[in-house]
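hi! just following up on the protien thing from before. the input was this:
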Amino acid sequence: MKPINIGICGLGTVGYGSFLVLKNNWQEISRRVGTEVVVSHIGTRRLRPGQDVGNVKISSDVFAVVNDPAVDIVLELMGGIDVAKPLVLQAIANGKHVVTANKSMIAVHGNEIFAAASAKNVMVAYEASVAGGIPIIKAIREGLAGNSIQWLAGIINGTGNFILTEMREKSRAFADVLKEAQALGYAEADPTFDVEGIDAAHKLTILAAIAFGIPLQFEKTYTEGISHITQEDIHYADELGYRIKHLGISRKTSNGIELRVHPTLIDENSLLANVNGVMNAVMVNGDAVGSTLYYGAGAGAAPTASAVVADIIDVARMISSPQSSVPALAFQDGSLSDIRITEMPEIKSAYYLRITALDKVGVLAHITQILGDCAINIEAIIQKEPRGADAASQRVPVIILTREILEATMNTAIAQIEKLDGVAEKVMRIRIFKLE
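and the predicted 3d structure came back as:
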């Protein structure tokens, strides 16, 4: 049988990492596929120092790769959307299969791309787009296919997890840890996508689509970052038996599907609470299997290349032995559900509130009165002694944990609390998620 030819578009960290895995493990890969898999064409502006691709054909124009009739599978590993999307659509139009690690492209334009691929009877594989080397897409789409997924929650951005871990374990300020993350290469010069939750929202959009059989709907994902989290909040959460993690959460309720990324308090004894540093983890709850946890490296050349090459093997197997493939979004074409995406005011959650109150008689009573009038039950309350600058200004931190209530109701209560003369700052609100 003739070899299956791979064209790589983009030879950065992931692109070259994938090339090396294909080169170093070619015998094992060929045994799994049943025929030889070779890189025949690479599109890159230049080779970086230390990169050696042997005698493989190189083009400075990536479209030369997708237009090469000898290429069977195109690897889109450039990132971004402006060039990547038309490149992928051109590859599909040429009847080529595509493997990509591009989460933003899939989350924003995946519906269009998968429809084009279905029309041309080719595959678009994207395991590497979520959680690096963790095979979470394959786990949900295939391993848990017999379950009705109830919810999933994940630490799906290593940069944010590194920052929160350092803040907690070493009592460091957010800005200082962010600078180190940039120096270490975990965060970009512009860290907005990581610390404001946009990267995690792209990934959550993809996971929710394959878990619940809904179209990709990134624009409806609620997104909140971690730049406002302080040492105080991390300390008080610890004191109450919780850890603060930046979670992507999607849950099926009677109101629809929740899609939300935000800082979250979770029980300190849970497995997810103890995922630290740059590591990723996703917990998935199915009606038959219960809760399962998937943990590993969420980024890096080798882990991401592992997922890319696994996709290549799946596509190559289908080429060498044609059979029914797994649908791109797990459910058959035409059977995606129109279940609505829940608006944030409709979700139910327990809450952590940090209120900076003036050290005056009656302020706490007014706060609890507002919560009581809104039928918000208090789980725990801590009033701290003012210290340092707070002592001089007579400001007292008040920490309140509530039971589950509608977000809309909590919004009303917070607005009323912030209007009190005895409340000096905006209320810090962090949602609590029970991993049950």
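The chain has a mean pLDDT of 93.
Residues 301-320 form the longest helix (20 residues).
cheers
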